[in-house]
Design goal:
The chain is of the alpha/beta class and about 550 residues long. It is about 50% helix and about 20% strand. Strand 1, helix 1 and strand 2 form a beta-alpha-beta unit. It binds ligand C2E and calcium ion (CA) (2 copies). One calcium ion (CA) binds next to strand 16.
């Protein structure tokens, strides 16, 4: 049986109270209070279970209006509908009651059918409103839900065709990681804090909603958004420690575009700066649209391109500075696409790191390199170590040691002929993981080259914490240092320090004789760069190998 709904009757006159009880008690459970103060006491205990209050105005101790003023103050009590019982058919009494927040009124003397109907319909109305309310507001943050946000924006754009508007979307960088590290409760707190800042920053007339877990939406007046932009976007991040926010902006020009799609575009703009260190927001425009379409085209064809052998292995030789002799090579991938032609890895590697395809591609390249070394062994070439690139994403998501050990075993390759270039930025992102992985790999005999050294922030600390074999100086770093007068450059110190802890040093991007000479003076061990050779197809590299060994294979 469904429990009866409860009604609180607040009335000092015994006779009137008894009459109301009589009318209502057939269908409701009735609680009684003789004045406003008593009623407040009862509400303290029963507020969740009371569906409606019937309230007299003139009472001793605390009258009806004062009682109404009190419950208005309490957000939960304010939700309970109140019907005021007025003495006469006096309009001023009725207006006063409504002004104090009453939902409705019934005149005395009581007529049972009128009262029952009013009570029933008001309770019903309030319950429906409560359900709608739940759908309109996101429970965690109190912002509009996604659907309701869309509806509100739609209405506003229809009603106000004059003002120009912009949709702003925010996204927390690495929210999943935050949840994993600090727990779901802390994650919820963070979302609430962000919602609060959104509300405050976006101002009174803007509409704010929560799109999904960590994505928020806001409709702002265009002018305001533009003046606020830097302030808003810049300050936002500094308010919440260790959290990076990314923002996407869609400026509404064509109002026939469905609101859902406008929001998607703002979200896409926000996603386009995901993982980009120095960029915090992007505006959805034709350039971004083109870029996204290009990304989609790449994503659509990458699988078949791999299957069809469009990813080609190139090798760029490395030379010893002392003897100017080839001592190894780096494997660099090229994508030769039947329509788009020759593509540089800078164009597709970052995307593959985003969509996870990098694992497949890297394994493919490693395998090609293993096959090649195995072939050279069989054909009597002098063996040189080949370096392969290991994406930072591989370190987080693959069982690297297992994969590489079984690959080397399968092709009968001594792991010391496979050098692994791991980019320095992997260290700052997740030091624990990389130290662990690198240790394992070294135990199996692989040689570790720390790539792009000098491009990030963690360099020196990392040298302290992690065992490795080679330091590969970032191209920009060495070009920058080599352009300074010798006494102003820190290159000497870096190289001396590397040697001091047993590392050999490779310089990348060496393009001129002068650069090579300077590097020799500073004690650099190996160089790689256009001065000696560009990355080349395997056949060409084999020719160099044969020449160097004076072999006629
Ligand atoms: P990286 O590992 O730092 O590779 C060195 C880049 O410098 C290569 O660019 C190479 O062609 C270029 N380079 C070499 N010598 C010179 C020079 O003297 N001057 C100039 N200006 N550039 C020089 P590339 O081949 O375009 O590769 C770009 C990046 O893409 C690589 O940077 C690497 O991070 C990534 N990459 C390439 N192949 C692979 C791969 O198979 N797997 C993964 N995960 N990443 C790869
Ligand atoms: Ca590299
Ligand atoms: Ca590099």
């Amino acid at each position: 049986m469904i429990p009866l709904k409860q009604i609180l009757i607040v009335e000092d006159n015994d006779l009137n109270r008894a009459m109301l009880c009589e009318i209502l008690s057939g269908q409701y459970k009735v609680l009684e209070a003789e004045n406003g103060l008593e009623a407040l006491e009862i509400l303290k205990k029963h507020k969740e279970d009371i569906s409606l209050i019937l309230l007299d105005v003139v009472m001793p101790v605390m009258d009806g209006y004062t009682f109404l003023d009190h419950i208005k103050e309490d957000s939960e009590l304010a939700l309970i509908p109140v019907i005021v019982t007025t003495q006469s058919n006096s309009e001023s009494d009725e207006v006063a009651a409504l002004e104090h927040g009453a939902t409705d009124f019934v005149p005395k003397p009581y007529r049972s059918q009128v009262i029952l109907h009013r009570v029933a319909s008001i309770i019903k109305l309030r319950e429906t409103a409560a359900i709608i309310n739940q759908l309109q507001y996101d429970r965690l943050t109190g912002l509009y839900t996604k659907e309701f946000f869309f509806q509100k924006v739609r209405e506003l754009l229809q009603n106000d065709t004059e003002t120009e508007y912009t949709i702003v979307c925010s996204n927390i960088e690495n929210f999943k990681l935050y949840n994993d590290n600090f727990g779901v409760q802390a994650g919820d707190k963070l979302l609430q804090a962000i919602a609060q800042i959104m509300r405050e920053r976006c101002g009174g007339d803007s509409i704010c909603g929560r799109f999904s877990a960590d994505r928020f939406l806001c409709l702002q007046e265009r002018d305001r958004e533009q003046t606020d932009r830097n302030l808003f976007l810049g300050n936002f991040t500094s308010q919440i420690k260790n959290v990076v926010m990314k923002w996407g902006v869609y400026e509404i020009t064509d109002r026939t575009v469905p609101v859902e799609q406008m929001c998607d575009r703002a979200l896409l703009a926000a996603d386009s700066v995901k993982g980009k260190y120095n960029k915090h927001f992007a505006v959805y425009d034709d350039a971004l649209r083109g870029e996204l379409l290009r990304e989609k085209a790449i994503t659509d064809t990458m699988e078949s391109s791999l299957a069809e052998g469009q990813f080609i292995l190139y090798l760029q030789p490395k030379y010893s500075v002392e003897e100017e002799r080839m001592t190894g090579a780096e494997a660099l991938v090229r994508w030769i696409h039947p329509e788009w032609g020759f593509m540089s890895p800078a164009e597709f590697i970052p995307l593959f790191e985003k969509n996870g395809f990098i694992h497949r591609l890297d394994k493919y390249i490693w395998k090609q390199v293993c096959e090649l070394i195995n072939k050279w062994k069989g054909e009597g070439y002098p063996l040189l170590p080949i370096s392969v690139n290991v994406s930072r994403i591989d370190i987080y998501q693959m069982d690297l040691a297992d994969t590489l050990v079984s690959m080397a075993e399968k092709y009968g390759i001594d792991p010391s002929y496979l050098h692994l270039e791991i980019t320095e930025s992997a260290y700052s992102e997740n030091p624990g993981q990389i130290i662990n992985t690198v240790n394992q790999l070294r135990q199996h005999g692989f040689v570790i080259e720390m790539d792009d050294f000098g491009s990030g922030y963690s360099s020196l600390n990392m040298l302290n914490q992690m065992e490795m074999d080679y330091l590969k100086l970032d191209m920009k770093f060495i070009q920058n240092e080599l352009s300074k007068p010798e006494e102003r450059s820190i290159l000497n110190y870096i190289i001396a320090m590397a040697h001091g802890i047993g590392l050999r040093v490779v310089a990348e991007g060496v393009e001129t004789r002068e650069q090579l000479n300077r590097l020799r003076d500073t004690g650099c061990d190996y160089v790689q760069g256009y001065y000696f050779a560009k990355p080349m197809p395997v056949e060409e590299f084999e020719k160099l190998l044969r020449n160097q060994a004076s072999l006629n294979l």
